[in-house]
Amino acid sequence: xAVQQDFGAxxxxxxxxxxxxxxxxxxxxxxxxxxxxxDFQFVEFEANGLRTAYNxxxxxxxxxxSNGLFAYAGYTWSHALxxxxxxxxxxxxxxxxxxxxxxxxxxxxxxxxxxxxxSSLADAILSHWGTxxxxxxxxxxxxxxxxxxxxxxxxGGQNESPGLDFVSGxxxxxxxxxxxxxxxxxxxxxxxxxxxxxxTVPLNHFRGFGLNQWNLAIRRDFPVYENLHLQFRAETFNxxxxxxxxxxxxxxSDANFGQAENTLAGALTxxxxxxxxQSGGPRNLQFALKILF
Length: 293
Hints:
Elements: E1 2-7, E2 11-32, E3 42-66, E4 69-84, E5 93-96, E6 103-112, H1 120-126, E7 129-138, E8 142-143, E9 150-152, E10 158-160, E11 164-166, E12 173-175, E13 183-185, E14 190-192, E15 206-207, E16 211-225, E17 228-237, H2 264-268, E18 284-292
Antiparallel strand pairs: 1-2, 2-3, 3-4, 4-5, 4-6, 6-7, 7-16, 8-15, 9-10, 11-14, 12-13, 16-17, 17-18
């Protein structure tokens, strides 16, 4: 559902609500059945019962193209809920989805700089320039905290990663300028839950690090023939070289539990995709020449 209001000839504000609800999704449970029937070790059951809900409010501002200028700003607040399970031997519990991103803001401006040159030389040098600026800021994604993987004798020696319990009286975070991002989860505030239990720490309750980043491009068009022209672009990503830390170490037994171990770009890098092509990497400069027709 959306409501839009125009302001003047070129401005518009839109307020959106987006909602989705999913039920009777597939749930999975494993059972160790060898004591009852030695012909089987594990039996996996599937049932319809999983529920997921998503609700979001969006606010969008647009300045439609006028005098070569286009601007956009959009903010989304959302909450994604689902039923989580730490492993196939533990029960489901309602909580934040792994993709629950509460706050997300994007803004960009593209401007074809006006030119009214009085001479052909000035026109050749100063005309057909433009710039594109983008700013993005978002909150952090949830992480699931685990205990060290252990053997479960009630499940035929199957290795499981139990959830965590809170330790009362301990601060949840430690702060120091020597820690990536300035803070980490306090290992002393948690202890492994019994095998087969999610623990008192809700799944997807804690979060990693958010992101904010400026990108800038400067471009120049070179007309060739009618609708054919060349475009030169100089682009920089993460203009201010602002550090963006990645997901935190979520295993309690690790020496770096609760700390960011790499940048966000490094955490997102998969396959042959380099970190420089991901948000949250170091400042990166790129030059391009395009043929537009």
